[in-house]
Write a structure and sequence with these properties.
Length: 234
């Protein structure tokens, strides 16, 4: 099976553990105003605009942040992810547009400043988290999807922002531990939930599968550590 997460063996660029003060969307997890970030160029037709509602005290920082972003549904994000099915890495484990995008992104420079190494090293690094991050960028909702190349850091970001749970929902970001562990530190792989099949499995769309591609998969829920919940319209 292909490497599905960045591991300590490549620590100089891969041990990307975010502190609680760093948000993958571009600001501080604790302060809604600091979560503001410039979303990428959206490639989706957003859902119809809704009348702005007064901010409620019980909204999470990500829900507040979502109010300034395009209104994008889970179905639209899954459609965008599905359109990438079949994209494959090269013999060196690189060559995908997801890795190329990450190499050129500000996030690569931030993680290199934090952990050392070179942005170019991401060009051949395991890319399941880069795929999820790329989809969020293209959809224009990166501030509520997060972005990183390390699955553990990405999952911690959702948890720090109180968008973490154990229920499979369409469009949720799903994190796996192939050994069946339930600790975020043991996460091996990440993808998107298409649906809960109701039989102990979920259907997913994932990058950097064992075949080194973007693929549709069916996975047992026993391998799921948890789910991150981006903010969707509808």
């Amino acid at each position: 099976m292909a490497k599905n997460r960045l591991t300590p063996k490549t620590r100089h660029l891969t041990h990307l553990v975010l502190g609680a003060s760093i948000a993958l969307g571009g600001g501080l997890a604790a302060a809604p105003s600091a979560l503001a970030d410039t979303p990428g160029q959206g490639h989706l037709n957003p859902a119809p605009a809704e009348v702005a509602q007064p901010v409620k005290a019980n909204k999470t920082p990500l829900q507040i942040e979502a109010e300034r972003l395009p209104k994008v549904t889970a179905a639209q994000v899954l459609d965008l992810a599905a359109k990438q099915v079949g994209i494959s890495e090269n013999a060196q484990g690189g060559g995908t547009k997801f890795q190329s995008w990450y190499v050129a992104s500000p996030r690569a420079k931030e993680t290199v400043a934090r952990d050392g190494g070179s942005p170019r090293a991401y060009a051949n690094a395991p890319w399941c988290a880069m795929f999820v991050s790329w989809v969020g960028e293209q959809a224009g909702i990166r501030p509520t999807m997060g972005w990183d190349a390390y699955t553990v850091s990405h999952a911690k970001w959702f948890k720090d922002n109180k968008h973490w749970g154990t229920t499979a929902k369409p469009g949720a970001v799903v994190y796996f531990d192939w050994n069946g562990g339930k600790s975020i530190s043991g996460i091996d792989h990440v993808g998107f939930v298409k649906k809960d099949n109701g039989d102990g499995t979920i259907s997913t769309i994932e990058g950097n599968t064992g075949n080194g591609k973007v693929e549709h998969r069916v996975r047992p829920k026993s391998q799921v550590v948890g789910y991150g919940y981006p903010v969707y319209a509808g």
